[in-house]
Amino acid sequence: MSEYRIRAGEYTATVTAHAGALRELRHRERNLIVPFPEGGPIPDYRGIVAAPWPNRIADGRYTFDGAEYEVPVNETDRGCALHGLVFPLDWTLESQDESSVMLSCSPEPAAGYPHQLRVAVEYRLAEDGLHGTVTATNLGGTAAPYGACPHPYLVAGPARLDEWTLEIPAATFLEVTPDRLLPKETRTVEGHEFDFRSPRRIGATEIDHAFTDLAFDGGGQARVLVRDPGGTGVGMAWDGTCQWLQIHTADKKPPFPNRLGLAVEPMTCPPDAFNSGVDLIRLEPGATHSASWTIFAL
Q1: How many whole angstroms separate alpha carbon 156 and alpha carbon 165?
Q2: pLDDT averaged over 10-residue windows placed end to end, the chain, 298 residues
Q3: CB of 153 closer than 8 Å to CB of 31
Q4: C-alpha span between 250 and 44 (Å, rounded)
Q5: Whole-number Å distance between alpha carbons of 297 and 118
Q6: What is the spatial distance between Cα 258 and Cα 143, in angstroms, rounded to a whole number?
Q7: Longest alpha-carbon distance in the chain
């Protein structure tokens, strides 16, 4: 499977044609994300682009414009359709130079999602980090429901995740069912173990939740910052296109490797938005939608 390596300043990255995924991102040879092996399967959706929906659709079923649809359930233990339709595909190279690469894919319209989309992702390295943009264009004749997010697992440094310090600029989080991780209600982080508005140690806290009511700075950016006690760190920033943020501490039961990195996923909509309609994008025929983010060393 083809891979594309790019570099700029003290950053290097590797992108795979399979899933249009960010396989590696390094600063001064230090990993900023959890990588995955070349040529093999992608564990835990590392570095993929999730589209045309991020996170889950309950039972794979939804209604849009009065019609009922059903997409394949790929998270069988929870009975959900997870992370969209484009991550299993091999993407086509559109352009590449020393510091950037653009790939695209066009999933075949199907009964569960009968829309003709072109989804493109660009990764561009600069002195200030990796800039990613996912762009979807509706090439068909009917409006399409749409949402997206990137899916990197950030690595602050060599210490265990429990020892990292985390800052999340979110005032509320989405409580979910414990068995299927489906939305229940939004709750304030005030007084809750998920309140990371001021930087503090992650410790034993387990998170696999969406956050919202994000604080954007004067430049229109929200930032998650993760620091290792040894002094290194990594950050991720995005703009108001993504009003939701999934955080996952990558908790696994033996024999799988546990808490290897922190999944940070700026999302255009919350989990199960195809059913709730919350912040769901209605992509009209001929319309285009883009969402961008940056990953940088601290």
Answers
A1: 9
A2: 95 98 98 95 97 98 98 98 98 98 97 98 98 98 98 98 98 97 98 98 98 98 98 98 98 93 98 98 98 98
A3: no
A4: 9
A5: 31
A6: 41
A7: 55
Q: What is the pTM for the complete model shown?
A: 0.98
Contact status, residue 248 vs residue 114, Cβ threshold 8 Å = no
Q: Which of 104, 111, 54, 116 is nearest to 243 (CA)?
A: 54
Tens digit of each residue's pLDDT (9 = 90 or more) over 247-288: 999 999 989 899 999 999 999 999 999 999 999 999 999 999
- How many CB atoms neighbour CB 102 within 10 A? 21
Nearest to 160 by CA among 234, 89, 230: 230
User: Looking at the DSSP assignment, which residues form a beta bridge with residue 125?
Assistant: 130
| CA dihedral sign, ordered 59, 205, 197, 201 | negative
Q: Please provide the DSSP assignment of the chain as one string.
A: --EEEEEETTEEEEEESBTT-EEEEEETTEESB----TTS--GGGTTEEEBS--SEEETTEEEETTEEEE----BTTTTEEESBSSTTSBPEEEEE-SSEEEEEE-PPPBTTB---EEEEEEEEEETTEEEEEEEEEE-SSS-EEE--EEE-EE---SS-GGG-EEE--EEEEEEE-TTT--EEEEEE-TTSTT--SS-EE-TT---EEEEEEEPP-TTS-EEEEEE-TTS-EEEEEE-TT--EEEEE-----TTS----SEEEEEESS-TTHHHH-TT-EEE-TT-EEEEEEEEEE-
Residue 229, preceding peptide bond in cis (omega within 30° of 0): no
Distance separating alpha carbons of residues 75 and 62, to the nearest angstrom: 16
For residue 190, how many other CB atoms are within 10 A of its CB?
10
At position 214, the amino acid (one-letter code) is L
pLDDT in tens, 47-62: 999 999 999 999 999 9
